[in-house]
Amino acid sequence: MYKVLHFIKRKPHLTHEQFRDHFERSHAAMALKFCGHLFAEYRRNYVNTVFTGGDSRDPDSGYGPRAWEWDLISEWILPSEEALNEIYRIMQTPGIDELFHADEDRFIDRTATVTVPCEVRDRGTAFDPEGTVFDTPTGEPRWD
Questions:
Q1: Which residues, in sequence order, are CB contacts of 100 under 8 Å at separation 6+?
Q2: What confidence tier does 99 reach under pLDDT thresholds 50, 70, 90?
Q3: Under 8 Å CB-to-CB from 10, ≥6 apart: which residues?
Q4: pTM here?
Q5: When you count CB atoms within 10 A of the terminal residue's CB, does the N or C end of the chain come out lower?
Q6: Domain boundaries, given as residue ranges, for the chain
């Protein structure tokens, strides 16, 4: 499995809500129309606030809500890196390329975009101690 995270920021003339509404109505719709067959999943995570600034275990550390630079963390979950390359090929096709660029120019601050390709490792949601620090005769963790 392969994943690409896109951290995307709105243009300053838009509110977070206007950005979200436009992305869902236009940009996500285009991505699904042209490339949806290549996605295993396509998630859009809209973020207004993050929590940071200290040690969350210490109430006096300054840890708390903060403004966040990006409005969206978009996740493309793909079966392979080849699927990502095919998406890029489709998005660079004349006609489609211009649609995406024109739409992005309406609402995305392209200078702030961060793209993070990831190799996904997933052990699933059921705990299996094999190969972990809990893979001991007693089941107690061992960090050596």
A1: 27, 30, 91
A2: very high
A3: 16, 18, 19, 71, 107, 108, 109
A4: 0.83
A5: C
A6: 1-51
